[in-house]
Amino acid sequence: METDLNSLLERAEAHLATQETMKARPLLEQALKVGGDSARIYNNLGILEAYEGASEAAFGHFSRAISLEPTNTGSAINLANLLVAADKLDAARAILERVSGVLRASGETKLADDLANYSQQIGQPPEPEHVLSRMHGYADAGIQQVGYDLVEGEWLPWIRVDGMTLYNLPLSHLAELKPEADLGTLLRVGWNQSVSDMKFRFECSSRYVPPHLNHEITPGQTIVELGAYLGHFSMFLANSTGPTGRVLAVEFIPENYAVLKQNLAKNFPDTGTAVHCGVWSENGTRPAYRHMLQANSFTPHSLTGEYSPVEVPCKTVDTLLVEQGIDEVDLMVITINGTELEAFKGMTESLPKIKAFAIAARYGEGDENRTETVFNWLQENGYTPTIVGGDHVYATRNLD
User: Which H or E element spans position 159?
Assistant: First the structure.
């Protein structure tokens, strides 16, 4: 039970690190059911609500975490920061001093001193981060270069990893997401988001074991990724399958597709193909809903916070494979945020061509356990599925 709780919290914290609150929320709700009252759970819930602008709810969660664990410095700092944002500096200092006093009484002198120093800095302008410190951080993450390229009239931030250039969303789009940010901040945000995406896709085994790692990716394979976002994982796949392999990357949000297309064209022009469409049970168009960066879906019930719709083209998997001339798929990776069953309906002809699936199945309707639903569907349709990490399913086709 403890291991399950730790796994849930580690995955939720990984999503919170990149502000993917939609993905973190169901994990934390499940953690509450598994672990009950826990300072760590409430601290993470507070962070989630703070990201979504629900300051009152965040305040309650951080306060609950401190009441459960009076020496919880993380929750104390988070609560203090909320109070500072509300211009309640004295209240913020009082929280920090109270927790500092508890730490000192319990013999944690160093932590108490650190918290007291943090309290003294409240209201003081932060010291600017030196650019060399930021660059050293990138180097520690295995990044060889960072920069910006002017591509089709847009400045795209990029990082260089393992000989590959990973583009991110253009500076103009980042400016829309963070209208209060100055140019220097936006430049760093562009690279930082690239680093987060790279770490999530290239180093995700250090956070949890996603289902595609159950699949041995070898040169010459054909892999299809539905819901490819900006293509960082698609590039990992293309790099692994080599010059004799093929990767088809499908993305429905226009801004994401524009970057995905550039990433594959820059790094794998001969073996990587980007397609702009959503995956559905029939061909046509549908409204897609956008929230934050990666929180996108055809089903708004799977999103949290405000979202905006955009009309996008849709195709069935049957249509996609025929159009691309793909006769056999070694692995199909699916991350389509709640519309897995609609995608399955469009696989009537192509299902026998697909050897294995790796599916992120987090978002069911109401109380539905979507992971279990996907598991059962695959089992009923000739596959041997395995649940990985609680909300992913890896499945291989049964031999005839």
Answer: strand 154-161
Q: What is the pLDDT of residue 334?
A: 94
Answer whether residue 207 shows pLDDT above 60. no
* CB contact set of 380 (below 8 Å; sequence gap of 6+): none
Q: Which domains does the chain have, with CATH numbers?
A: 2-120 (1.25.40.10), 131-202 (no CATH), 208-397 (3.40.50.150)
356, 339, 190: which is closest to 278 by C-alpha? Answer: 339
CB neighbour list of residue 46: distance below 8 Å, 6 or more residues apart: 57, 58, 59, 60, 61, 62, 65, 75, 78, 79
356-360 and 331-334 beta bridge pairing: parallel
The model's pTM: 0.69
- For 14, half-sphere exposure in the C-beta direction (CA atoms, 13 angstrom radius) is 20
- Of residues 279 and 302, the one with the higher pLDDT is 279
The SS3 of residue 249 is: strand
Structure tokens at 201: 């896709």
Distance, CA of 216 to CA of 228 (rounded, Å):
19
Six-digit token pair at 77?
């700092």
Report angle CA 263, 192, 361 to the nearest 5 degrees: 70
> How far apart are alpha carbons 61 and 67 in whole angstroms?
10
Identify the burial level of 10 via C-beta atoms within 10 angstroms of its C-beta, where 0-12 means exposed, 13-18 middle and 19 or more buried. middle
374, two tokens = 């996907």
Task: Give residue 273's Cα distance to chain centre.
Answer: 22
Minimal CA–CA distance to 251: which of 208, 307, 303, 313?
313
> CA-to-CA distance for 26 and 9, rounded, in angstroms?
11
Residue 90 amino acid letter: D
